[in-house]
Write a structure and sequence with these properties.
Strand content: 35-45%
Structural class: mainly beta
Length: 611
């Protein structure tokens, strides 16, 4: 009742529990011993408080909405403190005005590190700390130590935190932004007792920023991005090789699209779990010129959405073999936001982690594969997919779904460098890609076909005549010569079988078995068929062959061919009226065809040289 006080006696850790509404209306008198009161119900008329060196510990149940003390401005609080757990703004009141307690008494109220203020109705609340710098002046690196903060512990969800030292989060925290300004070296943010950090991005352009030069901002705790904005940013802005690293033992879970900005030698690394939550969950966009790396301890098994690269951006996966980099039904998309025409680059270092699709929308995508992968589809809207394959696997394979290549026009290409037979596969049979889609693929600068198991193979045309080697009956066609459907040019064919190729054959329809000269024309075996020769003697000859002409013709030159078609030089001769004496002393023994060219015709006769 009013005018009656309660105080701790000789008991150890004395405690009063109030379960009824408005049942405590007396005073509290504490000397040198701590006293605890648990408020499980509203109390509207508590009296005055007197303290010595002991503290009054007040614990408020979550259901309590009012604890009203009398005006205490004239009360002696000694050296004690009022320590409040379960504190909520504007629930506890002293008197009915801002003078219900003195400023000295106000400083003796501890609500967990936040400065306390009193309003015009006497209600107390935590001072709003919307921005504060973590200095670690208290030395223990704990979030909850008010001595570690320049402006008090941030106590609203829209607060911004600046880090000058490493931080241990010892309570669940929700703020708008956390950033490293630079000038204080690398900083590590971790937690104890599985406490988490929630970032909502209220009123800021990035939820995480590293503005230091050549320093790291490292996280080793669970981080949640929960925002009302459509996109939230993670940025490495300073010069040098600065990084933001989510280390092993951390997780990053987002219900919104995340943009990554880290250009030059800077990058963001995720080395544990990336996940997406909620209706609008996830989606990671790597901004122009930026780099995102997934480390060897990372896993995207809970990341059920896509990656987008916006031009000259790089995405690297070191995720362990058979874990998840891109899941099935999701994709990597290549865009060019700044219209600079610079390709995006994706590198996958370990096998069977890239399980999704690839979309090339406005600029080339370079895909570096250092291990085997089972992927879904390739969509080429504008730009090429350039796949560089470098696998040391004993049985390498790069597979896509049946009919897993689409292109909006015939100018887009799927280009494979480092092609290997029985590695690249679409589906499981020869219908895996149509001929039109096969025409979009270039493997080591060659066209490809598809075999009965769906594997791509290079169509080899060694002589470049337009007929592939497997169908080319004439494999070494001279450059520039036209060929038929069998890959044969006229210089490679002998249609009449006379031993003279078609391009040199002046007599293309020689009878089978006939003896011909180098022009492919049949050789007469006697002079009976001569047009202008009466006789040739002696047969055989030794030094001089005499030829009698039917008339006195002008003889231009005489040469001979061996019976095998080999030509010799012109032979010297002397003509007297209608008689020719031809010198044959330089010919070896054998049978020859002598060509006599006159001003009217060419006559061929057989001669025999024997000594």
């Amino acid at each position: 009742s009013n005018g009656v006080f309660i105080s701790p006696g000789a008991a150890t850790n004395p405690k009063l529990i109030l379960n009824g509404v408005n049942i405590f209306k007396g005073d509290i008198n504490i000397s040198d011993k701590d006293f605890t009161i648990l408020f499980n119900a509203n109390q509207g008329s508590v009296g005055e408080l007197t303290m010595g060196s002991g503290n009054l510990n007040l614990s408020l149940d979550a259901s309590v909405s009012e604890v009203a003390f009398a005006d205490n401005s004239s009360s002696n609080w000694g050296d004690g403190k009022v320590v409040i757990s379960g504190f909520k703004d504007n629930v506890i009141r002293f008197g009915t005005s801002s003078s219900g307690i003195t400023s000295e008494q106000l400083n003796k109220i501890d609500i967990g590190g936040t400065e306390v203020v009193i309003n015009s109705s006497g209600k107390i609340a935590g001072k709003v700390i919307s921005q504060s710098t973590f200095t670690n002046a208290g030395g223990d690196m704990l979030w909850s130590n008010v001595n570690n903060w320049s402006n008090g512990i941030p106590n609203i969800s829209s607060a911004k935190v600046i880090l000058n030292d490493s931080l241990i989060i010892d309570k669940d925290v929700e703020i708008a932004q956390i950033k490293l300004p630079g000038g204080f070296g690398s900083v590590h943010v971790s937690s104890i007792d599985n406490k988490s950090l929630t970032l909502n991005g209220t009123g800021v352009n990035a939820v995480i920023q590293n503005n230091g030069s050549n320093v790291d901002l490292r996280f080793e705790l669970d981080i949640k991005i929960r925002s009302n904005d459509s996109i939230e940013a993670i940025q490495v802005n300073a010069g040098g090789s600065s990084r933001i690293i989510f280390r092993k033992g951390s997780s990053l879970d987002s219900d919104r699209l995340i943009s990554i900005t880290a250009g030059g030698d800077k990058y963001v690394m995720i080395n544990d779990i990336l996940s997406s939550s909620g209706l609008f969950g996830g989606g990671v966009t790597v901004m122009p010129g930026s780099k995102l790396v997934f480390g060897e301890n990372a896993s995207n098994k809970d990341y059920s959405t896509y990656f987008t690269l916006l031009g000259n951006a790089e995405l690297i996966s070191r995720i362990p073999e058979e874990d998840f980099f891109v899941k099935s039904d999701f994709y990597i998309k290549s865009l060019d936001r700044n219209n600079k025409g610079l390709p995006n680059v994706v590198t996958v270092e370990n096998g069977y982690t890239m399980r999704g699709s690839l979309k090339v929308d406005s600029v080339d995508l370079i895909l570096n594969l250092h291990a085997s992968q089972h992927m879904e589809v390739i969509e080429l809207t504008s730009g090429n997919l350039i796949l560089n394959f470098d696998s040391a696997a004993e049985f390498p394979e790069v597979t896509f779904l049946h009919d897993g290549l689409y292109s909006s026009n015939n100018s887009n290409r799927f280009i494979i460098n480092g092609f290997k037979e029985k590695v690249f596969r679409f589906g499981s049979d020869s219908t895996g890609l149509s001929s039109e889609k096969l025409a979009l693929i270039m493997a080591d600068s060659s066209s490809v076909g598809i075999d009965g198991q769906g594997y791509l193979y290079i169509i080899v045309d060694s002589d470049g005549d337009g007929v592939i080697d497997s169908e080319d009956l004439c494999p070494d066609t001279p450059v520039g010569e036209s060929v038929d459907s069998d890959g044969c040019s006229s210089s490679q064919k002998d249609s009449d079988g006379d031993g003279v190729t078609d391009n040199l054959d002046a007599c293309p329809n020689t009878s089978a078995g006939a003896t011909v000269d180098s022009s492919g024309c049949e050789i007469p075996l006697s002079i009976e068929f001569s047009n202008f020769i009466n006789n040739v003697y002696p047969i055989p000859a030794d030094d001089i062959v005499t030829i009698e002409l039917k008339e006195n013709l002008e003889v231009i030159d005489i040469n001979v061919l061996g019976i095998n078609g080999a030509t010799t030089n012109k032979l010297p001769f002397a003509k007297k009226r209608n008689r020719l004496n031809v010198k044959v002393s330089n010919l070896s023994d054998g049978i020859y065809i002598m060509n006599i060219t006159t001003n009217k015709d060419i006559q061929k006769v057989k001669v025999i040289i024997k000594r």
